[in-house]
Specification:
The chain is α+β, with helices and mostly antiparallel strands. It has one domain. It has a three-stranded antiparallel β-sheet with strand order 1-2-3. A hairpin with a 5-residue loop joins strand 1 and strand 2. Helix 3 crosses helix 4 and helix 4 runs antiparallel to helix 5. The longest helix is centred in the middle third of the chain and has 15 residues. The protein is globular and about 45 Å long. The chain starts with a helix and ends with a helix.
Length: 136
């Protein structure tokens, strides 16, 4: 595998985001989230860290840390969602930064944030398809 195929990302995918399926809701709709890649390739990532740098980041409680990271994700990583139903009641939450912070800043949803972090940290979704993938 070439260096390019192994490591190069697509700037548009990194900055605009990629759709991921989260789950199928009990009402049959598919919950999806659009995530930008974390890290320096994402123009909003560094900006979000700088914007929240003034926050007192020393000796944060777990709840404060979750809220801080939720703000960074709301500003830089989560680019959209469809059929997000945290209450499992068939009512979609509107995609807003405030709702991202409300959801990801809640420690009860830590595993959702961890799942999204893993997806946003991964390389493959943010690369151009390889030629052998396109041929198949």
């Amino acid at each position: 595998m070439s260096l390019k195929a192994k490591f190069k990302t697509n700037t548009s995918l990194v900055n605009d985001g990629v759709w991921f399926t989260v789950c199928t809701n009990t009402d049959g709709t598919t919950c999806r989230v659009k995530l930008r890649r974390t890290g320096q390739g994402n123009a909003l990532w560094s900006l979000a860290w700088r914007n929240h740098q003034g926050d007192d980041l020393v000796d944060l409680t777990p709840a404060q840390d979750a809220e801080f990271m939720a703000k960074v994700y709301a500003d830089a990583v989560v680019a959209g969602w469809e059929h997000m139903q945290p209450n499992d009641d068939g009512k979609d939450w509107e995609f807003t930064k405030e709702n991202v912070v409300k959801l990801l800043g809640n420690l009860d949803w830590l595993e959702l944030k961890n799942d999204w972090r893993e997806k946003a940290d991964s390389l493959a979704p943010f690369q151009d398809p390889r030629e052998d993938d396109v041929k198949n």
